[in-house]
């Protein structure tokens, strides 16, 4: 938000609103961009307005009618919160209703993947001729780590050398979503891959101090999450990694697959895993407060549902 220049009376109120939301621990980047765009619209089309009126909001929503419905509903939600903030301060303001736009029918985006798919993805990453070898290997390592841990893209982006304990095989995830910290244990194969990555950084002259970024771009700066997504999207397109409804695989599908396949292993090995405590551990591993948030990432396949059904006597 520091890079946004808030102008006008409404803009200053928006800035104050966002400062308060940030102070209570909210991640406000997307919300700030939404309100900034609304403020720029008001400055251009309604420069004399000092509050939000219905006609202004309807005109703004009409100007972004080409955007996806889910995105427009999210913007109305952010604007509604700001308007309620104004009302709380005694400012006369129109508070948009949630029904201002049609209801969004949620369709979960999930592309099931298997280990063979990831091996092909990593191999294609290493064969990308447009990148230097260090970056090819770095992207392959990042994608492998995402598959093995179910980490968020932002968590990869913020990982520092001091957060990676290769002796004990533990990653420390700092200030992730909702400003939570957590530890992630990883297997020996992941540790070996990370050690090789560090060796490549040393050989290439990239910084490896405690505070330096663990994954870097070719210039030594932070490897951005958008770069990871762009790189994977191109590979997924080339390899035709698609879901049953034809949607192309995304980086975030790694997290969905990790949760779903872990759940399947828990269910199919009851002598090794007790479902109730293991589900709570899975939620903690993924950085969720409870298993209710983890349910969003669980996509049981038909064979697993058949196995579950067979455990009931009436299903025979």
Describe how the helices and strands are arranged.
Layout lengths: L7 H16 L5 H17 L8 H10 L5 H20 L26 H12 L6 H17 L3 H6 L5 E2 L4 E4 L8 E4 L2 H17 L20 H15 L13 H16 L6 H12 L4 H4 L7 H9 L6
Helix pairs in contact: 1-2, 5-6, 5-9, 6-8, 6-10, 10-11
Compact description:
This protein is mainly alpha-helical and 316 residues long. It has helices at 8-23, 29-45, 54-63, 69-88, 115-126, 133-149, 153-158, 188-204, 225-239, 253-268, 275-286, 291-294, 302-310; strands at 164-165, 170-173, 182-185. A hairpin with an 8-residue loop joins strand 2 (170-173) and strand 3.
Quick tags:
single chain; 316 residues; mainly alpha; three-stranded antiparallel β-sheet; 13 helices
Account of the 3D structure:
The protein is mainly alpha-helical and 316 residues long. The protein has a domain at 8-100. It has 13 helices and 3 strands, in the order H-H-H-H-H-H-H-E-E-E-H-H-H-H-H-H. The protein has helices spanning 8-23, 29-45, 54-63, 69-88, 115-126, 133-149, 153-158, 188-204, 225-239, 253-268, 275-286, 291-294, 302-310; strands at residues 164-165, 170-173, 182-185. It has a 3-stranded antiparallel β-sheet with strand order 1-2-3, with no helix packed on it. A hairpin with an 8-residue loop joins strand 2 (170-173) and strand 3. Helix 5 packs antiparallel against helix 6 and helix 6 packs antiparallel against helix 8 (188-204). The longest helix is centred in the N-terminal third of the chain and has 20 residues, at 69-88. It is globular and about 65 Å long. The model has no long low-confidence stretch (mean pLDDT 90).
